[in-house]
From TrEMBL:
Taxonomy, superkingdom: Bacteria
Identification of the protein by name: Transcriptional repressor
Matching InterPro entries: FUR (IPR002481), Fur_C (IPR043135), WH-like_DNA-bd_sf (IPR036388), WH_DNA-bd_sf (IPR036390)
Family listed: Belongs to the Fur family.
Extent of Basic and acidic residues compositional bias: 1-14
Keywords from the UniProt entry: DNA-binding, Repressor, Transcription, Transcription regulation, Zinc
SUPFAM superfamilies (alphabetical): Winged helix' DNA-binding domain
Region feature Disordered, mapped onto this chain: 1-21
Amino acid sequence: MEKNTSHDHDHNHGDQSTNHNHNDCIESALATAETLCVEQGQRLTKVRRRALELIWESHRPLGAYQLLAKLAEEGFNSAPPTVYRALDFLLSAGLIHKVESMNAYLGCVHADKEHKGYFLICDDCHNVMEFDYQDIHAALIEKAAQQGFELRAETIELTGLCSACKSHPTGANV
């Protein structure tokens, strides 16, 4: 059975016709983080919690130094190791993903379940959509095994134009 779920991290942010509430996403992500930390015997420290909130605020990938600047503005320790430790924790807990081609971090919409995240990245507005398509993962493992290769990590990032940018070819969505 195919499983294909996707989530638009931008939620048409600039479109006033949608009723999207960023606070709902942030609250849901924090509730999931709290639950996962308890289950994993980990602590969601103030820095980790705020880093996760900041990553979820815009629904767009956030670079480590952007995150560092925002945390420093709020009076948190502004040393890069502090931010990288928080990011490493959030990554290992499955609460965020790293979008390799952008060297940035994105909140994981499927943090409460085991999955592989794949990404559609808009070249114009830089919106990133995560989708979970387990058939891709299974096919990659099978093809690698046929070559005698043990797959340990995978990153799939597809670039192109999102539907909003396709309908506004002048770049008005940037």
